[in-house]
User: What shape does this take?
Amino acid sequence: MRRGMGLWAAALAVYAFLYVPLAIVVAYSFNDSRLNAEWVGFTWHWYDVLLHDEAMLAAAGNSLLIALISSLVATVLGTMAGIAIHRYNLKSLTFMVLTPVAMPEILLGVSLLLFFIQVLNLTLGMLSIVLAHITFSIGFVAVIVRARLAGMDESIFEAARDLGASPWETFRYITFPLILPGVVAGWLMAFTLSIDDFVITFFTAGVGVSTLPLHIYSMIKIAVTPEVNAVSTLLMLLTLTMIVLAARFAPDALKGKV
Amino acid sequence: MRSSWAGATMRGCFCVTESLRKSTPAARLNRYLVGGPPFLFLLLFFVVPGFIMVLASFRYPGEFGGLAPLSAADPNILQGLTLETYRFFFSDPIYSQVFVKSIFMALATTLICLTMAYPLALLIARSPKKSRDLMVLLVILPFASNFLIRVYAWMIVLGPQSALSQLVNGLLQGLGMEPVRLLFSPFAVLVAMVYVHLPFMVLPLYTNLEKHDPALLDAAQDLGASAWQRFWRVTFPLSLPGIFSGSALVFIPVLGMFAVPDILGGTGDMLIGNLIKEQFLGTRDWPFGSTLSIMLTIAVLLIAWFAAKLAGRRGSYA
Assistant: This one.
């Protein structure tokens, strides 16, 4: 009994550690003061500032566009990779899919920077960011899709073949509907990862284009105003919505995330 | 009876699938059609850039940053290559010191994460099945908010006017000691590193602890083991694979992290990541930046290999 109490106390302390800092960020986004120091009074002012911040809105627009394109491409390629790994046991593809997920992000960021500038002679911007985001998202989609396939009874695919379905028909009418929840979860994951990414974008963005995380970074580095709290609160709401959606489509995907 | 029948069918199917996979040209074509596109994409944007980085680390820096131009048609292509950056890395102890400091930071973060995650993971694993998913979700939820926001939150919590700073400095003053600055210090970097990576430790630990058979603990208790003995001699050894994989998931990203020291650290709190960022975007010495990245890659591979070996060995007799 005493031991159970000790565990609960420790766990509650960890939960508090996880939530108190974020709660403070949210609370101060409604605080009528320029300083994130003490509570003065309630205001919507910082959200108003945010809605009229052209640079912030442009960055948010870029982030959405990049996330939309890169997550769609990554979902197609990641689903193919997931199926290929599951079905054909391709060692080299497994390695190429999983390593970018496991490595420190900075390594992918700088190697892509080198590659884009030195080899492709590409001007850094939207295209380089999208390509980089696809590269790191494929692995996450592939892992989720493969997990979905792994739990399935292989014999239904054989049955489809026996009944005369072509490989494409088997995919279209059997495999795809069955893995669809995994594909949707993978897409949501890729979208969230792209919207959130800071490190790899930081190295592949160049000077012209900014994304939401890059803009937040420059605000934090130069001048912290509660506008950062307001945008943080909105972003948390967005991710929360994505998680609820992911939980609806594929409850297992939440566990597959790490 | 039923299981052996299923087993036989499974084996049967497996043979059919195998023959379908290997022999017919159509099956081989499908394999290329499905696996080819992601393979080519990752080859171009992951494998090739990796090789370019290895090559770049053996090059001279360009006059205006970047790399010195190298003509592919040059018959004497080896003249453009040099070990200079590696010699430079080992000649100035300051670089090895940053590596050692980063390894200590990663070690400290891992140990603190483990200490905080273990009781929580144990509690979740021993909770009723119904509440487990919610408790896990509550661990993931803050982790799903933007990384920069989670780091920024600590700028407020540790800021000079924050309640925590004032409490700490009030206590220090009461004890007659100098006030300290919490923000822009190694302490701030460590706290945020733990904060950002904690779920990576909780989840593998929970996944492992959840699978333990409660009958083992009952047996230990029947044989007279105290609560501490039951934990230390049953639960803990069985959880070692979870500990090793969680540790790798925390240790590796911390080792390459540049944003946390960049935002919350002082000028002296540079880690490997900051050094690499400085070479690529600051001084623009790309060959040296590549060398540092290769050194980081080697460190990461060594650690991953070590963790996998430990986890595999423990896992086999656990």
